[in-house]
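Please check these two lines:
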Amino acid sequence: MHLYIKNMVCPRCITAVLNELEQMNLTVNSVELGEAEITNELTPEEQRHLEQSLKKLGFEIIEDRKSRIIEQVKNEIVYLVHHSDEILKTNLSSWLAERLNYDYTYLSNLFSEVEATTIEKYYITQRIEKVKELLVYDELSLAEIAFSLGYSSAAYLSSQFKKVTGLTPTFYKSIKEIKRRNISEL
């Protein structure tokens, strides 16, 4: 039995879902971002219990097909940006269509209709969040960050960062350093 689960975005989410399934004594075949496969068929009571347990952790079981597809798109993008060293050798639309086995036009229209934003904007937002994280770590230069995330240049990354956040990467980093210092002084 496949379970499609909303809001799974990291390895800790996988562990949390796995723990809940095991606490219910379910036989777990696999747990990945956005889905779990179990051997057991759930009774209606077990289904309600699982839904309640997952909801307490911030997750939801997704029942309808369209919502599952949208969640798959999000999970693939989150995986690509935050958990993979893969740099797209093709465009995002081809990559998603291949990964999800759907026509990209269908994915794009469905995503825009339900999420009120485009897949491309969602992807850019995720990339900018990753840039923020890397800026705060202060281990890579802006050029190295740009290269690691597949940007054509540090200048293009800076331009996109400013367009999305309203701040330059340098200014953003300085604000985070000030906040970090203030917290450590408490």
Observations:
- The first strand starts at residue 2 and ends at 6.
